[in-house]
Design a protein that fits this description.
This protein is α/β, with parallel strands linked by helices. The chain has 6 helices and 6 strands; from the N terminus they run E-H-E-H-E-H-E-H-H-E-H-E.
Length: 224
């Protein structure tokens, strides 16, 4: 596959692409992309169109947490807006922009990186650790992303485009570095297993599902 690696920081994005190309012998191409900027989304989609003419897989991986250590009742509307701007509106804007290219694929795939922290079933279970996390902006944004996943799956089913949510597990990345729950126990490679498995499925794969668990099994599901 040709992989377009989107990043807000051009220097870090180019470095990541160089590293992946050197280690894997892959064709990874950096593209400047902030999912909150419509102009950058349009430019990225235009480049893919000009160079490839279609898109087989869209992975919506951009995500932020801003309220570590802030009690639920003290989270501000501004913090909510910042998180939803990336985690929800960004994913929706990217998906909307990419649908014409995905329709040109024989088996288009959209993979949304979600989290059990967005599961209403787990959040409402007092015996589940998820219910104790108290991340108002992040959890509600992932719940919204899950709803968006199902709605897009329903809308794009007749186009043979599958849309799924993936649970990468608690990965040791900068996103959860300040977490009072630990920085993460999984490597980026382990966290990528479920998203990659979904990305490589054919048109007969699942759609409208929330896949993955701590053992990287794409067959396991997270309750909505």
């Amino acid at each position: 596959m040709i992989v377009y690696l989107g990043a807000r920081d051009a220097e870090r994005g180019r470095a990541a692409a160089r590293d992946l190309n050197a280690r894997a012998g892959a064709d990874v191409r950096f593209v400047r992309l902030d999912v909150t900027e419509e102009a950058q989304i349009a430019a990225a989609v235009r480049r893919v169109d000009e160079e490839c003419g279609r898109l087989d897989v869209l992975v919506n991986n951009a995500g932020v947490v801003v309220e570590w250590g802030v009690p639920v009742q003290e989270v501000t509307t501004e913090q909510l807006r910042r998180v939803f701007d990336v985690n929800v509106f960004g994913a929706a804007a990217m998906t909307r922009a990419c649908v014409p290219l995905l329709r040109r694929s024989t088996a288009g795939q959209v993979v949304n990186l979600s989290s059990p922290l967005g599961s209403l079933s787990l959040l409402s279970d007092p015996d589940d650790p998820v219910s104790t996390r108290g991340l108002l902006a992040y959890s509600s944004s992932k719940a919204a992303l899950n709803a968006i996943t199902v709605l897009y799956a329903n809308a794009l089913r007749d186009d043979s485009i599958c849309v799924n949510a993936a649970n990468p597990g608690l990965v040791a990345t900068d996103l959860n570095a300040p977490s009072q729950f630990g920085r993460g126990v999984r490597t980026a490679e382990q966290g990528a297993e479920v998203p990659v498995a979904l990305a490589l499925m054919g048109a007969d794969g699942p759609t409208g599902a929330f896949c993955g668990d701590n053992d990287s099994s794409v067959d396991a599901t997270v309750p909505w």
